[in-house]
């Protein structure tokens, strides 16, 4: 895979040039975006003036100036950056600053932004081989049918053959929708009311999940949200991640009432937290013993830790799974799926109602199909593991050398680190991290041309477009900043 990767290869002290240039099969359709940066020049000219102006306007138009809270930079200070272009491993703002991007649109961009490597889909020979060109071709036929299309079958087959637990799938438009749907399904199937979730795990913003939630809820320090009626959360039980005896106690106290456990098998929404070796196994056993369902929320981990997600990586098969992000290749998407006998309860095959005007729309399906196709190429996950290992080891090494308490980890293309000795096994441990130090680190890295998630409580993501050179530049930047903070 490494050989197939022609990332932008530039950054500090180097001049960078990359080009989005692709055509449809007749070669008539072309996009061209050039990214060229000399970093000395970049540092000299570093200004966020245009971003600041645009964000000041945005604040008058949209709550907090953003359309999703964690984008608002509340926990790292300063104003969010307003972006203009993405390409490969790079993201460029409206002031012309370019950054190595470890947010990847919060996960979807695993093959790199605006991919132009491409791969042919045998069952769709008429489609050009890259995400952007295939989208343009699909768009010629219209943007939404509100009716079945062939592309849904193709992506459904790809998802079913990749993810061990999924025998049937329902596409929706976001991870939130997927999690809402899957919990309704678990309750319908078991005829039980309660679910168990873990502190610091985020399953979207549906009422029943806004209890001890991660992501923006954690970042902004919101314990719950006003507007969520008590009735919506009385059936949501919580336990600390990695704490199997807390889960056993919940099953004892609520005998015969628990429909399902839902969890992020590797937490990404309180920062990166891996499960202890026996935790997932024990949860699988407990759910079986109590006739409850096990739901892996793989909106983040699906196709990111390995092609078959966390369940393939750890060899633990849940009953139901949610997906999002990567399977839409950067367009709005979500999905839930699982055992056929459970999925056949979903309307119109069965009585559990769930629907969506734009669900399975041809554009999201096209971007998803092409993204998964690239991920199927040999060596993909070995490459992601290699560069992400290099990155996290490098950051931890320079952090320790500079005298900081720091710990972290990675799997596949997902990583995170905390400013604490660790180990970090759950949300309470994550909250011991020095978030003021993280904020200083964050601001320093931005000025060095590295864009991380603007919160200590979010995982980072690498992509096939990140080169070893990107990683080395990032470590060099971290070394410099960590000496100063
Ligand atoms: C594990 C997990 N579940 C659900 C969601 C919600 O997905 P969306 O933002 O697409 O609604 C997210 C979003 O980050 C997530 O990480």
List the helices and strands and how they pair.
Elements: E1 15-20, E2 33-38, H1 39-44, H2 49-61, E3 83-87, E4 90-93, E5 98-101, H3 131-139, H4 150-162, E6 168-172, H5 175-190, E7 194-198, H6 216-219, H7 230-233, E8 236-239, H8 244-253, E9 258-263, H9 279-289, E10 293-297, H10 309-314, E11 320-324, E12 334-338, H11 340-343, H12 362-375, H13 380-401, E13 407-411, E14 414-418, H14 427-430, H15 435-447, E15 450-451, E16 460-461, H16 468-484
Parallel strand pairs: 5-15, 7-8, 7-9, 9-10, 10-11
Antiparallel strand pairs: 1-2, 3-4, 4-5, 6-12, 11-12, 13-14, 14-16
Helix pairs in contact: 3-12, 4-12, 8-9, 13-16
* Strand order, sheet with most strands: 6-12-11-10-9-7-8
Quick one: overall form?
A: globular
Q: Say how many strands there are.
A: 16
CATH superfamily of the domain at 131-375: Type I PLP-dependent aspartate aminotransferase-like (Major domain)
SS-based structural class?
alpha/beta
Bin the helical content. 25-40%
Residue stretches low in confidence (pLDDT < 50, at least 5 long) are 1-36
CA-based gyration radius: 22 Å
Q: Largest sheet, if any?
A: 7 strands, mixed
State the distance separating the first and last CA atoms. 37 Å
* Beta-strand percent range: 15-25%
- Report mean pLDDT, rounded to a whole number: 89
Number of helices, where a helix is a run of at least 4 consecutive DSSP H or I residues: 16
